[in-house]
Amino acid sequence: QSTWGEIGMEQTAQETPFEALPGETSTTTPRGEASATPRGSKPEAFEVKSLEWDNPPGGTMKPLSDEAGQPLGAETPRDVLQQVTNNKIMGQISFVIGVVTTHIIVFLLTLSPLSLTYFYSAKTPLMVLIRFVIYYRDKSHYFLLDFCYFANALFCLYIWVLPNDVRERVFLVIFAVVNGPLCWAVLTFHNSLVFHSVDKMTSLAIHLTPGLATYSIRWSLQDHFHVCERSLSEAKDPDSPCGTQGDLFVNMVLYGLVAYAAHQFMYFLVVQLGCMSCNDAFAGRTEPKVKYWTSFRYLTRHRNSAVTRFVFAFGSKFAPVAYGFLNISFAILTILPTMLFYQHQWIHFAFLVFISLICTWNGASFYFAVFAEGRGTEVFS
Q1: In this structure, are strands 9-10 and 37-38 parallel, antiparallel, or unpaired?
Q2: In contact, 64 and 54? CB cutoff 8 Å
Q3: Which pLDDT does position 297 carry in this prediction?
Q4: Phi then psi dihedrals of residue 147, to 5 deg
Q5: Does 270 have pLDDT greater than 60?
Q6: What contacts 79, CB < 8 A, 6 or more positions away?
Q7: What is the C-alpha to C-alpha distance for residues 368 and 160, in angstroms, rounded to an integer?
Q8: What is residue 169's predicted lDDT score, i.e. its pLDDT?
Q9: How many Å apart are CA 218 and CA 222, to the nearest integer?
Q10: What is the mean pLDDT of residues 255-266?
Q11: Rounded CA separation 130/265 (Å)
Q12: Lowest mean pLDDT among 79-88, 212-221, 285-294
């Protein structure tokens, strides 16, 4: 579910040993300083003196930004600056589209909630299609098997396809997963409001826009979409899935976790077991013939991160299981608060404002880093 971009750097590195995790065999690993030169012209101010490495502890590591191995969308301020320098017109077009889209969403959210749901459900498939074309070229298309795309597809089916007699219960599940794992992914993957980057704006839209659409449906379109009553005390049907706190917990939290676990099982079969060149060779500390990027590889790319150490704490063989357990734990922690969001509009509103502020802050930090490089005035003038 993350946002990457191609850096494409040529590097040289020397081999030095490092300490392996308990139970792992210490090996030699390319580390140390490396020079980096992005494709095309690049001013001297953007020389990279050191680089991160993308393999977990205890194995042969390769530079994170090698020519073919960088995951799509890992855009740094330097990348956006280079893209805008090379193609200023495309940068301007992307910026205009991003700003206009943001204005449209705010306008529809306040004045035409129903139109917002249709706008979201029409825009999302187009954005995902464009992303697939780009990601397939860079061997990053397995990112599109992540849960965020599954949840967006389920939400679009709810809006256009599902019959009214099942919408009431299905919406509870959608509300839970959208305002749970999906919205919190903005923090997990450091999504940013960066108008010059189509990739970053796409990732932000996939994670945040569904939350805004569920807000419209929950608090303004209950009758149109056959949603449970605004307050539990107003529920008159004894068979209502939100008639009591217990009903709400079962139909929202438990069923939401079932949906999440079902996706994780599918992901395990397709990516962790089926695509052997995606993760098996990576976890086994060997170099795959074809390099594919997945969320598993991305989240464990830093050898000293807490995620990497936990996932590989029991060895490479159990790494996929530990990764799945970590995801399920994340889902439980983020889905539980959605019961409050569903029952109290002001809490739901405050939560979405909080997530929006986070991505805006990330975007502001991103642009500040661009200007801090010393060429922001020249590029954006």
Answers
A1: antiparallel
A2: yes
A3: 79
A4: -65, -30
A5: yes
A6: 5, 6, 7, 38
A7: 41
A8: 92
A9: 6
A10: 94
A11: 27
A12: 285-294
